[in-house]
Amino acid sequence: MLTVNKKIPCMRRSSEEYILLTICACTTFAIAPFAAIRLLNQEWRLAGIDSFLIIATISFGLFVWQKRTVRLASILLAISCMVGLVAVVHIKGPSLLYWAYPVMATTFFLLRPREAVIVGLLTMTTLVPVLLPHIPKMELATILVTMLLSMFSAYIFANRTRKQHQRLMLLATKDPLTGAGNRRAFDVKINEILLARQRNRQTLSLLVVDLDFLKAINDTFGHATGDRILCQVTNIIVKMIRVTDGLYRIGGDEFVVIAMDANLAAGIKLAEKLRQLVDESALLAERSVTISVGVVEINEGETGMECLKLADKALYEAKKVGRNTVCTAQRDSDQTAPPPNSNEEIVTNHYSRNAEECEASEPCSI
Q1: pLDDT tens for residues 271-283?
Q2: What is the distance between the alpha carbons of residues 88 and 44, in angstroms, rounded to a whole number?
Q3: What pairs with residue 297 in β-bridges?
Q4: Cα–Cα distance, 146 to 100 (Å, whole number)
Q5: Cβ atoms within 10 Å, residue 39
């Protein structure tokens, strides 16, 4: 029997989080000595700008550390650095222009490549009126050209890196045959959802879908036919679920559907529709192709892996009673304090209804 562990595993931090946290730390340590020197020299305006940047970078770093929201913090940090650069150049003059190169390069780590180019061009446009009275035109032209070349090189590097990252993420999280998410993507997504669920109390169901007798189909008709049927079943599921739901292939012929905002009754209804659609699709002329489904609603404090095990038990029951079946895993709600290892039971629901009957039942009885 399955025991419930109240502890939900913490997610590992993404590379984007580490990059932003590193930039915040480096910016703070780079500016802090200059802020101290300017305070000692009573350069109050420059010291105030430096202090503002230090406070801003620390605040953004703490925000990302606690909320794990990278996008907003990245935009605000990039804008703060650019505004600080323009302000110090306006106050001190061209002697502080050297800060423009690391600041403009850093924006390509914080923003999307096109956004970083736009911000860089706006910054250069803002700096020209300040530099023009103090620098010969040829020298100013040289500075602007070198900035543009640096920005162009950073854009090429950032754009290629971004595309390579997207390709690697696709390989790491997508099943190459069906295009559904893989087991790695499922583990990450279910942990994200459960962490968010602690705040929004959103209902959530898992459907474990297994293709019946896939090995027999492969042995009789060949693996190419089996692969084609897997892709066709994937397409049927994708068309039925909502954009907020998720589909993942976690085994050779086993899929998991994460049904958002779906209680147990809604999960059963979705599973029965999927079962009936596959059964009626005539995917193979020589024999029928069917699926078995196990359904479970995730309760408060449970982890995704615990519910996946429970849904697997329901799927096993569906196969044991004859396949082409929807079975549910339902806990014993009559006991207010259930003893260990006795807090759930497998409830079998062998459906033979048509689509109209399934649609008319509110909610699906189990």
Answers
A1: 999 999 999 998 9
A2: 12
A3: 205
A4: 11
A5: 15
Cβ contact 225:177 at 8 Å: no
HEC assignment per residue over 329-355:
EEECCCCCCCCCCCCEEEEEECCCCCH
Bridge partners (DSSP) of residue 348 are: 327
d(CA 102, CA 119): 14
Interatomic CA distance for residues 55 and 62, integer angstroms: 11
**Residue 112 to residue 101: CA distance in whole angstroms:** 18
Alpha-carbon distance of 21 to 254, in angstroms, equals 39
* 183-360 carries CATH number 3.20.20.110: no
Which residue is associated with the tokens 């359904």?
295
At 347, give phi and psi (nearest 5°). Answer: -115, 120
Strands 204-211 and 254-260 turn out to be antiparallel
Q: What Cα–Cα distance (Å) separates residue 354 from each residue in 215, 244, 267, 279, 349?
A: 28, 26, 17, 11, 14
What secondary structure letter does DSSP report for 111?
A: S
How far is the C-alpha of 119 from the C-alpha of 108, rounded, in Å?
A: 10
Higher pLDDT, 51 or 356: 51
Q: Alpha helix locations (H) across the chain?
A: 15-40, 44-67, 70-92, 100-110, 113-131, 137-173, 183-200, 214-221, 223-240, 264-280, 304-320, 355-360
**H or E stretch including 231?**
helix 223-240
Per-domain residue ranges of the chain: 15-173, 183-360
pLDDT at 13: 78
And the tokens for 98?
A: 């050297």
pLDDT for the residue 344: 42
Q: Which residue has the higher pLDDT, 235 or 351?
A: 235
Residue 176 pLDDT more than 50?
A: yes
Spatial distance between the Cα atoms of 169 and 163, rounded to a whole number of angstroms: 10
